[in-house]
Amino acid sequence: MNVEYTGRHYDVTPAIRKEVETGLTKIRKILGDRFETKVILAVEKHRHKAEITISPRNGPLVGLAQAKDMSIAVNEALDHLEKQAVKYKSRWESKKRSARKTEEVQKWNGHSTQGNQNDVQTAVGLSEKTAVPVLVHRYPAVAKTTEVHLVRSEDAVAIRPMTLEEAIKEAHFRDRDVFVFRDPKGKVMVLHRTRDGRMELIEAP
Predict the structure, then answer these.
(1) C-alpha distances in angstroms, 189 versus 9, 159, 176, 193?
(2) Is this model's pTM higher than 0.85 or not?
(3) Is 100 helix (H, G, I), strand (E, B) or coil?
(4) pLDDT in tens, 132-164
(5) Which CATH superfamily is domain 3-90 in?
(6) Looking at the domain covering 164-203, what would its CATH class be?
């Protein structure tokens, strides 16, 4: 397990390393082994801060936490990271299902050169000699639309101005797909996590 540790005003102990690697084992069961891990542990004004970043295929996931004790901070950061990993995996599986669905729709619309299993071939004509083969397509039933459910959220809006880097970390920390903030100059910016897990920056006019 390749883990890079950085201590800021803090000596990384074997016990803390073991806690980190135990938590990462759970995350690897969710995402597999293909990601690097960076762990930053810092002490500032008697507050212990833990920042754990993993880099799976489609963008980094960050777990941030602070507490009076480093062990508590590390475990909270790992818990937050595990939730993000589950969400990341669900999003990735949803994307694959969507790709398969698109492929099926293209087949139904006649974009595939191979015959579809749902297609039925029949013949139209007065007799076998004059009959013309006709391909009949079977289309799936149209899914019913669901009602839009609106919920007001204050977690998606930053109270104070912040830099882009701070906003990205805050969005990860709050586990938000959309995060609205103002930059140091007062301009309204929107961070949006796309379906492939990447962060997109939108500048409000």
Answers:
(1) 34, 13, 15, 13
(2) no
(3) helix
(4) 565 555 555 555 555 555 556 666 787 788 888
(5) Ribosome hibernation promotion factor-like (3.30.160.100)
(6) alpha beta
